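Much of our argument rests on the idea that a fold can be written as discrete symbols. Part of our work consisted of pairing the sequence of a single chain with a tokenised description of its backbone. No coordinates are needed to read the tokens, only the vocabulary itself. The record that follows shows the chain in one-letter code together with its fold in token form.
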Amino acid sequence: MVLDLCGGEASEIIVAGDPTPKEKVIDFPLSELPRLTGLKLPLADLRRVLEKLGFFSAGQGERVKIAVPPWRPDVSGRADIVEELVRIVGVDRVPSTRFGREQARKPVLTAIQNRTRKAKRSLAARGLLEAVTWSFVSKREAELFGGGAQELALSNPIAAELSDMRPSLIPGLIMAAQRNADRGFPDTAVFEVGQIFKGDRPADQLTAASGLRRGLAKPSGSGRHWSDKSGPADVFDVKADAFAVLAAAGTPMQALQVVPGGPTWFHPGRSGTIQIGPQNVLGHFGELHPRAIAGLKAEGPLVAFEVILEKIPEPKTRPTLAKPLLDVSPFQPVERDFAFVVDNSVKAADIVRAAQSVDKKLVTNVVVFDVYEGKGIDPGKKSIAIAVTIQPREKTMTDAEIETLAGKIVAEVNKRTGGVLRG
């Protein structure tokens, strides 16, 4: 047909190699079948099965010679013969055998693998859909999100807009949400757990868990509804997402601190940084900066978060005294409210930590329930009100003991923040 349609001349036929099938004989011990599968089969049944499949067997002792038919090049060893026998006899005849429990089985997954699985499950439970985006971004996108270094540029990119290793998962999530919006699905909540690259060393490759909410994609549900008065997704939604990931991954939540602000791709007044002290920053959350959104030719506003799973401290391995799973005191808890007037620069978290540090056994909970600025408060000042729960452990506390503890709380807050009780 080629000659008829295209013309030309055909070359001579050349055969490379020897097409004659080689004769293959396998020395098969009868003990191999029970060793690998636990299945015992009489020699007569073994011969019958193999002959039906085109094999030829010879021998009567504990070892037989099995000739493999030329049309079965996939059979090359004893395990292949065992597989053929089990396939025909039936897997249901293979006996079940329990694993030995003399020694505890070692964990198979590493710590970061466990954290990755738990992070994905926690975000899916909060209504976000998993996305898998490219590990490459354009040079412009990399620079917008803290990357763009020369050592992370690809020498042979698959496309001009995929020229650099990604410094963050957020650009890919922004583009995924925008593509959904362009196709009529504006209320999108997506997440990804994957690798980001801060440099070309192995230690610079980190595992990030990131999420993004667009439009009315709230944890309670997405889309417009007459009964929903909560409005679009906001900073507090992604903050809760980030905290859910950290809690699932085993972070000591009582040690977390949230400070205002974040990287340049977040809005400076609508973002926060999650850390355990200034030296260990776990991640960021907030509303994305309009400049970053415009750089990706997307539409905002968008709220997102990103936490680094390797930054989470490893749990202590030293043996400690076992604590009861449920430590309930039989005594009635007492709640006291305090309102402190502080400078505008003072963080509410500083007041909470100061109150908690007075007595960690008696002070079981501290909650901020009011922040006020305006009439009755001096300019440059604000009022922060907290509710402190005092839980007696050994006996019911007297009024004098409660007042003494309250005085310590006021003194500690004043010492750390300069706050005074509001009159």
Remarks:
- The CA atoms of residues 325 and 364 lie 16 Å apart.
